[in-house]
Amino acid sequence: MVYPERHLLAIEGLHPPAIAQLLDLADSYVLLNRSGKTQRDLLRGKTLINLFYEDSTRTRTSFELAGKRLGADVINMSVSTSSVNKGETLLDTAATLNAMHCDLLVVRHDQSGAPNLLAQKVDAAVINAGDGTHEHPTQALLDALTIRRRRGRLEGLTIAICGDVLHSRVARSNIHLLTTMGSRVRVIAPPTLIPAQAEELGVKVFHDMRSGLAGADIVMMLRLQKERMAQSLVPSAREYFRFFGLDAEKLAYAKPDALVMHPGPMNRGVEIDSEVADDPERSLIREQVEMGVAVRMAVLDTLSRPAAEWAPNVR
What we know:
Elements: H1 16-35, E1 47-52, H2 58-69, E2 73-78, H3 90-100, E3 104-109, H4 114-121, E4 125-131, H5 137-151, E5 158-162, H6 169-180, E6 184-188, E7 204-206, H7 209-213, E8 218-221, H8 237-244, H9 248-251, E9 259-261, H10 274-277, H11 285-303
Parallel strand pairs: 1-2, 1-3, 3-4, 5-6, 5-8, 6-7, 8-9
Helix pairs in contact: 1-5, 1-11, 2-11, 3-4, 5-6, 5-11
């Protein structure tokens, strides 16, 4: 085993062999899922708890489906009807979960670092399903798998990440993964939506779509996250789409065979035009959803293995 960690809390810090191992295993699960077969005995007797403090459709559903396809007992904890909604602290929740002796804990939280704190307090393997504006590691893995299956590689590709980079945990995880695997990453957004010192992450920063998309192999759009904005950082949705929304005219700045991605949910007419999003030749958005199940199966498989199979000193 090359994967070095007890948990999956972030992409930052993972080295190429560990990332490649997860992608290779996920690739095998794509084939398994498409064959209609399952491995329902792999996680038999193990318990997976999905603990989501934020709303989610794709991530929670795909973790649930991944767990069930591998034979785990899957429990979805509804925060809105749990003791959390009555004022229970995260540490008290951790103690409760520990008493339940679950094996795998998937956590989405609105505060950066919450999954990391839980990982220090519970015996289960913890998987970060998105924390604040920090990271969303399985999204980056599924995006990388989608790209690799279409392009055959990650190294040497030019990938443009466009939109609300400032608030996007998806962008951060993708930047860490793609730069680690040898891609050339650009970020495109108005200055108000670019993190300070973004260049230190190893990306090139652009503030207009024409120059940012020139020669791009992959165009990855991001949702405008108004719920995380303390103030209005764009004039209006209409103005934002005019300058930074992806339509056929702007996509033409990229390579002729450039592919389009979006982690969802999409705001059509704000960050992406329906014609582009639904283009069967250029859009990988539906394929990303399929890859999500395979990636999460690979992660659950890897983290459920006995401790003796880990190689903590191998990076």
